[in-house]
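Backbones bend. Our protein:
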Amino acid sequence: DAIFAGRELEEPTNMITLPDVAAEAGVDKAAYQSCVSSGKMKERVEASVEEAFALGAKGTPYTVLVVGNEQAVINGAQSYDVVKSIIDNLISQLDGQPTTVETATTTP
C-alpha cells in the first residue's frame, strides 16, 4: 500500500523511495539495498515479468478469479462494485445464467 499511496493511478513508482518503503515494512534497509545493487534476483524478476505478460497481465495487481470451470481476469486495481459484478457473473454461470459484465482492464 505504501508504494501506491500518494500518487496518481497512472503515475510510475518513484524507485528512489523503495528502500524507505521497504524499511517501513520491516525490511533491513541495508540488506534491501545490497540485494538490489547485487542484481542477484534480476533474472528471476525479469522471468516473472515475462511470464506475467505472456499470461496477459497488463496491470498491478493482476488477478485471475476461478469459479468452477469459469474464470475471469482483473487487470489493475478495480472498485469493489466491478470486482463484485465479475464474481457474481462467474457464480451465475455455474447455474447457467450469465449476466453482462464489463471486463476490468484498467492498467495502473
About this structure: The chain has four helices and two strands. The two ends are 13 Å apart (CA to CA). The longest helix spans residues 80-94. The longest strand covers residues 62-67.
